[in-house]
């Protein structure tokens, strides 16, 4: 594969207004960003080893400059979450073979360190390196073992972003605003590289508070807003902030399922239903509701341009057989297209295990697809597809029903071993007011879904364990 320019609009001279890029309280134009990033690229080129570059991915302008500098230099960039503990940070650095650290130095870091100076400029003409090896190494946790490094090329990121620009009618006339972490696909690739590719202005609000999103719309004309369900839940609980979002063009939710009550409240308060989409570190965003498409709560839309999907059986007797798109049959979602990862760093066996013999990526997610091509994600095959009493039940469907109960604010459903049923359905719930009766909740679900889908046990908890992107960590339940 030849060279691929990812940051096309930025390198073509777009975003030349003085405040085109705003990260927290820092503003810069596209040329200023490029000039500062070229200094970082020069520093990367001077490192003694060829290994990847680790960037402390704080939500700052320095991080954006460092990420762009890595692309200019052609060095794989490893975004390191700022809240990662020493043990996991040590694994990421050792596994990636990082040769340089960019950002503030944690005490245990022994790599050469560079800090980003936003006032410095390079005399070299800023352009992306001419090869298309791995551009990002994103570390993603599975259900077992330490995090694996996902290798993403510029070509893959460009393909995914172009599909989204088409689906969301994303143009240079937009201003993108969000407060997402800069160490995930959502916040970094979509939320930074996307704007720099399309040429839309960018506002990173820092902490994703409802008032910060409202200020981005009111003060900076934000038209396209990205958030995770936790963000939109907080916005839905703040009617004044939500009302300001009425002038935004598109509200996008991802990284975890958006609870139906939040979807409905957002539609009521902002005048528009959020757009939901689906993807993962290995695939970019492969499925999304289109800007001009139907917005159904709990459904994540259709494949974006260039991508295909299918459902495959995971039953032992029929494993791999293709399943009907009837809106009911649950199977493993498999995808293919130009935006997929190049593999797991240093793990050829793990990489090979994720692909079918005919070239489709196994997402590990359970889903249904209806006759019109709309997708609903049931959850992870490993934890969200529950086999109970001979039935296959999706945890997400039960969670949606639980959240319709007025006394429940959060819910997570898992299957636990059961001598009689194989697995019994257990619901963990956070209550929003007075105490709830577990038996009444069980009956509540049974009235809305099939009786075999009711929880056999309800546990009230103070909070659900979540990661930085708001996904419930069911293994900890």
Relevant terms:
single chain; GMP Synthetase, Chain A, domain 3; 25 strands; 9-stranded mixed beta sheet; alpha/beta; 14 helices
Q: Could you please describe the fold and organization of this structure?
A:
- The protein is α/β, with parallel strands linked by helices and 477 residues long.
- Helix content is 29%, strand content 26%.
- The chain has a domain of 88 residues: GMP Synthetase, Chain A, domain 3, CATH 3.30.300.
- The protein is built from 14 helices and 25 strands.
- The strands form six sheets. Strands 2-1-10-9-11-12-13-14-15 form a nine-stranded mixed sheet, sandwiched between helices. A four-stranded parallel sheet has the order 4-3-5-6, sandwiched between helices.
- Helix 2 packs across helix 3 and helix 5 crosses helix 6.
- It starts with 7 loop residues before the first helix and ends in a 17-residue tail after the last strand.
- The model has no long low-confidence stretch (mean pLDDT 90).
The profile of the biggest β sheet is: 9 strands, mixed
Output the CATH class name of the domain at 389-476.
Alpha Beta
Basic shape: globular
> Distance between the terminal alpha carbons, to the nearest Å?
44 Å
Give a count of the beta strands, DSSP E runs of length 2 or more: 25
For CATH, the homologous superfamily of the domain at 389-476 is named as ANL, C-terminal domain
* Rounded mean pLDDT score: 90
Looking at CATH, which topology of the domain at 389-476 would you report? GMP Synthetase, Chain A, domain 3
Structural category? alpha/beta
| Unreliable spans | none
Fraction of residues in helix: 25-40%
* Spatial strand order of the main sheet: 2-1-10-9-11-12-13-14-15
Total number of helices: 14
Strand content: 25-35%
CATH architecture of the domain at 389-476: 2-Layer Sandwich
Gyration radius (Cα, Å) is: 22 Å
């Amino acid at each position: 594969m030849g060279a691929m320019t990812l940051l096309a609009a930025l390198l073509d001279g777009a975003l030349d207004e003085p405040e085109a890029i705003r990260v927290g309280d820092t503003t810069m134009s596209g040329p200023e960003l490029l000039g500062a990033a070229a200094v970082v690229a020069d520093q990367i080129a001077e490192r003694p080893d060829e290994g990847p570059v680790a960037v402390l991915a704080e939500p700052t302008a320095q991080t954006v400059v460092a990420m762009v500098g890595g692309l200019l230099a052609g060095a794989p960039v490893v975004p390191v979450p700022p809240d990662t503990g020493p043990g996991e940070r040590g694994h990421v650095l050792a596994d990636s073979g990082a040769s340089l650290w960019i950002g503030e130095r944690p005490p245990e870091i022994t790599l050469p360190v560079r800090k980003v100076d936003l006032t410095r400029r390079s005399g070299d003409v800023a352009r992306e390196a001419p090869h298309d090896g791995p551009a990002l190494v994103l570390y993603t946790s599975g259900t077992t073992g330490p995090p694996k490094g996902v290798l993403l090329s510029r070509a893959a990121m460009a393909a995914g972003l172009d599909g989204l620009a088409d689906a969301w009618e994303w143009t240079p006339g937009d201003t993108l605003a969000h407060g997402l972490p800069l160490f995930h696909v959502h916040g970094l690739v979509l939320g930074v590289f996307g704007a720099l590719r399309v040429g839309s202005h960018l506002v990173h609000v820092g902490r994703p508070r409802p008032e910060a999103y409202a200020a981005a719309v009111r003060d900076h004309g934000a038209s396209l807003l990205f958030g995770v369900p936790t963000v939109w839940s907080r916005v839905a609980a703040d009617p004044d902030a939500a009302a300001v979002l009425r002038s935004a063009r598109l509200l996008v939710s991802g990284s975890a399922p958006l609870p139906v009550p939040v979807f409905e409240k957002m539609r009521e308060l902002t005048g528009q239903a959020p757009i939901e989409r689906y993807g993962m570190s290995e695939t970019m965003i492969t499925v999304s509701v289109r800007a001009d498409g139907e917005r159904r709560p709990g459904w994540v839309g259709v494949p974006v341009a260039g991508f295909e999907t299918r459902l495959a059986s995971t039953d032992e007797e029929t494993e791999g057989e293709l399943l009907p798109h009837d809106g009911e049959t649950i199977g493993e979602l498999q995808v293919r297209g130009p935006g997929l990862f190049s593999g797991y760093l240093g793990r050829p066996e793990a990489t090979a295990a994720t692909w079918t013999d005919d070239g489709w990526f196994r997402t590990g997610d359970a889903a249904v697809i209806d006759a019109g091509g709309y997708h609903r994600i049931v959850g992870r095959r490993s934890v969200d597809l529950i086999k109970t009493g001979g039935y296959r039940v999706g945890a997400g469907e039960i969670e949606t029903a639980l959240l319709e109960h007025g006394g429940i604010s959060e819910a997570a459903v898992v299957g636990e071993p059961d001598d009689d049923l194989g697995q019994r359905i257990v619901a963990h719930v956070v209550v929003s007011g007075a105490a709830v009766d577990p038996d009444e909740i069980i009956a509540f679900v049974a009235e809305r879904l099939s009786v075999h889908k009711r929880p056999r046990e309800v546990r009230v908890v103070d909070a659900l364990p979540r990661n930085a992107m708001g996904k419930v960590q069911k293994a900890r339940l």
